[in-house]
User: What shape does this take?
Amino acid sequence: MGNIKGIRDKVAIIGMGCTKFGERWDMSKNDLIFEATKEAIEDAKIEPKDIEAAWGGTWVSGFDGRCLADPLKLQYIPVTRVENACASGSDAFRNACYAVAAGAYDTCLAVGFEKLKDSGWSGLPDQQSLPSNRYPDRTAPGMFALMATTYFSRYDLSPEEGKRMIGSVSVKSHHNGTLNPKAHLRREVTIEQVMNASIVAWPLGLFDCCGVSDGAAAAIVVPADKAKDYRPDPVYVKALQISVCPSEGELRADYDFTQVKATVRAGEAAYAEAGITNPREEISMAELHDCFSITEAVTCEDLQFSPKGKVKEDIESGFFELTGGLPVQPDGGLKSFGHPIGASGLRMLYEMYLQIQGRADQRQIKDPKLGLTHNLGGIPISNTVSVLIIGL
Amino acid sequence: MAGIASYGAYIPLYRLSRPDIQKAWDSMIPIPGEKAVASYDEDSITMAVAAARDCLTGIDPKKVDRLYFASTTSPYKEKQAASVVAGALGMGRNTLTMDFGGSLRAATNALRAAVDAVESGAAGNVLIACAETRIGAPNGDKEMSFGDGAAALLVAKKGPVSIEGSISVFQEFHDMWRSDKDTYVRFWEERFVREAGYLRIMPSTVAAALQKFSLSPGDIAKAAIYAPDPRLLGMAGGKMGFDPMAQLQDPLYMTVGNTGCALSLMMLVAALEDAKAGDNLLCASYGDGCDVFVLKVADGIDKIKDRRAIKRHLESKKMVPNYLKYVQWRGLMETEAPPRPPINHISIPALWRDMDWGLSLHGVKCKNCGTPQYPPQRVCVICQAMDNFEPYNFADKKATLTSFSHDNLAASIDPPSTIAAVDFEEGGRIIFNMVDRDPAEVKTGMPVEVSFRQVHFFESIHNYWWKCTPIRC
Assistant: This one.
């Protein structure tokens, strides 16, 4: 893997903001960007003019630095739009942190945002289009369902057992969403409802799939050695890793869909950067990319939370519940909080940040030290993954 | 004299029962049997490719000199269909491609032209592929009787069937026709069509052919004679001096329907499936005249009987669940579009650039590590060697289904859209859609095969690629 140097403990977060996610018919993308950034600025207790450079992470809702400069009236500072599929928000944050760690700037802003509900479409646009248009419509649920089909088959789970395993993941995330005023969906669901829901892409049903949402989130970062000038409880950046798959699963017959190599690699690199040797013990809590319930289950194995092929036992024992040994999706996850694509990476950091500071209200985990966020952009056969770790 | 070196055919998997059509329209007239219906992603080009692949079993397409495509239902009025078929088959760029159309004699016209080319020495061999997807107007008699299908013949200097020769007459005649402005086939009064048309010239032309080759009706083992229905064939057969039960080849009316210009060659292929050395065969088409061919079967006919041809395709079938499905597949009624994003504006340069791998399913094989991969890459997915590849054909390789999903969200004329991760026995993977399947029967590990289909019709462009199906037959 090479010598992971990284920027552990060189950068700190001193302010964050996040809009309510959901069908924000009344909010334009500029409204969402402004709302999240205003909260971050107020949380950091800085002035807008203190921001020296900014990065805007979005999949399709903006195209160059003006996406932030325009709504926020940033005054002729450097602004860049970042896109890395569902890892766009995390990558915008990563860029802002590298700028601070390099000593180029002392105060940087990262905003993730997405306005998806203006389109009127069901689901996201095509995952695999070619300029020649030869490939038929391939949806995200369809491509992730392949992961469920082979996971069930490889580990001898009947369709019923498999659907129960992944359904439990959604039950847990829905419950956590009811404790979060900013979540898109705030209702409990039972395992029966999840297993009997209409099929979107077999074997994934309605409650195995995250919906389409609008939203934005923002973070303000400064050098670690200046963080306590701003607040007594900054949260430090421990690891920022991205791993991009060269579409191996599309071309190689030996990819069996039960693992995402980019998650494994990004996880290993993040643990090395953060000095973590036993993730299951040392990571206090995690926000994982639960675009689909099966994705969360496989990710827990890929990130070494559970042994390979054994995540079912941890799901059944409640290990990932809010009250369990390694709470996953304490804020409801993509499933309940929602998935405005560019915003999700920063929304995940927002929850980890609040939890570390003891500000997570009804969702508060006892004495968390390290929070991990994971994004998976793309599909199992071809993807770009981020793993970030922040904490004390 | 030219010969037939190989034959092939294709009948769509799906059949629509005529009683179901009758029930839909609350029609009084009971017409029995079923018709073959091309699926929503099939057309005359895709079916011609399927029949040609059957015909080319064990034969290198690059060794074929010419490709003649025949149909009255080419997807294009102006754009050659034969070039699409030749591209899909992986034929060499110097192949002479020709379209034959315009009448129900288009396929036998192509056969005549192929025989002339080979006999004159202008070509070593000619592959003929004919196919039809004619539509009869809804709630009409032609909707009942028409069917979809295709046939292919490889005409060469030598083969187990020799083409003794042919006779043709022409007749400028509006019994059945379709102008460039019509969707549905038009026709004149049935009695006129029968008596002034078919019954007047078919028997006399057949008689002339028999006389030319010094044969009497009794010498013919099987006569593959185009007919729009069995009753008319029986009447004509009697006039020609044939024993209808013993000598007339089944016109496929009860099982496939009237497949237009493809019918006479489909019937000939069916006759060849049962033929033995020494048989004299007759093949006749009708449409603005007649073409009548006389053929003789020799030793070696058994060597090419492993084709799917007519019989195996006939026996492998699924029923179209109801008449409205057929209406939707043929686009005869405007239906509500699903709330999915529209197809992207197409790039013609990209379509042209992709031609080799898009049309013929050719990928590459890394010369460094030996891994086949699709689509063609510049950097090997396994060993990262750069620009070190050779062409590799995926279309003829054995394959199995590694994973699948039935996607209800994806835009499809016939949901669910089954996504299939297909792995090839000798290496390589392609993600296809799977069609011609019952979703409940799809299982990981099952063997699958590839099929050339239309993916979209958008911005007036018929866009083709491949899908996978369970092993058909």
Remarks:
- Chain A touches chain B through 48 residues (CB under 8 Å).
- Residues 65 and 226 of chain A are 27 Å apart (CA to CA).
- Chain A has a mean pLDDT of 96.
- The radius of gyration of chain A is 19 Å.
